[in-house]
Amino acid sequence: MEILVQSIIALIPAAASVAIVYFFLKKSGEKEMSQLRGELKKERQQFFLEPRMEAFQRVVLLMERINPHSLVMRIHQPQLSAKELQGELLKTIRQEFDHNVVQQLYISPQAWKMVKKSKEETVKIVNIAADQLEEKATATDLSNKIFTIVAEIDELPTEITIRLLKEEFQQLF
User: Fold this and answer.
1) What percent of the chain has pLDDT over 90?
2) Are the C-beta atoms of 71 and 122 separated by less than 8 Å?
3) If DSSP codes are grouped into helix, strand and coil, which group holds residue 138?
């Protein structure tokens, strides 16, 4: 019995030493894991920074391309009827948007929602202008009507979205 007591007494400091070593190793491992996580996060951010920058560039370009002013100037064909030009404008808006839909992976959901809303509002402007014209109206009549409607709007949805995208982009740095 005495040997058992002496063995237990001898094991207590050894067990305490093992516990202390375990505690320090655990703390050291946690610190290394934390540093490793930080390094991985930095690498991940750097890896995705360039695609995110490109996405912001492409979405801003999309907004510029579907801005009613630039859209009409680019697509206008005087020989078309107003209905034909309306169809071309709507087709172009849809194609521009569809071509850039994947960019939503790299911008915030709020920004993408604004992009979609800008597209929809631009479509509305084109449709409202077309609805206000006579059946035999020309492409020039439609273009003029779009410019008249746009002149009455303080800030176009595409311009608001571009401002939001620029603010979000600045937060990356």
Assistant:
1) 66
2) yes
3) strand
Q: Is 159:121 a contact under the CB 8 Å cutoff?
A: no
Instruction: List pLDDT tens digits, range 109-161.
Output: 999 999 999 999 999 999 999 999 999 999 999 999 999 999 999 999 999 99
Query: What local confidence, expressed as pLDDT, does residue 3 receive?
Result: 73
**Which helix (H) or strand (E) segment is 164 a member of?**
helix 157-170
| Angle at alpha carbon of residue 120, lines to 85 and 81, rounded to 5° | 10
Rounded Cα distance between 4 and 10, Å, is: 10
What is the reported pTM?
0.72
CA–CA separation, 122 vs 106, rounded Å? 23
- From residue 72, how far is each of 32, 77, 108, 134 by CA, in Å? 59, 9, 29, 19
Domains in the chain: boundaries:
49-170
Q: Which two tokens stand for residue 166?
A: 């620029």
